[in-house]
Amino acid sequence: MEELAHGLKTSNKYFLWVVRSSEEAKLPKNFSKETSKKGLIVSWCPQLEVLAHEAIWCFITHCGWNSTLEALSLGVPMVAMPQWTDQSTNAKFVKNVWKIGIKVR
Length: 105
Known about the structure:
- Keywords: Glycosyltransferase, Transferase.
- This protein is an alpha/beta fold.
- The chain contains five helices and five strands.
- Strand 3, helix 4 (65-74) and strand 4 (78-80) form a beta-alpha-beta unit.
């Protein structure tokens, strides 16, 4: 999580990051404050509405089936970060079959 936070911060791009309340402690100290001009960190968002917005150019996802289908149906490129079960298979399809994303190693 710290590496992802570092990447978002140094990219100097606008971002929306959904971080569960139970995971907030894993964020680097002062990350929210230091990125508040370009970043928005929330505990929940209406994912389908966000993915459908014209400003979205990339979706970093764990590749759960629902998230994958939503991004795929809207043509949003994905950075796949599978965690367990079917997510690795879904990420493989995102990269190798549908060719709409990459998979993090």
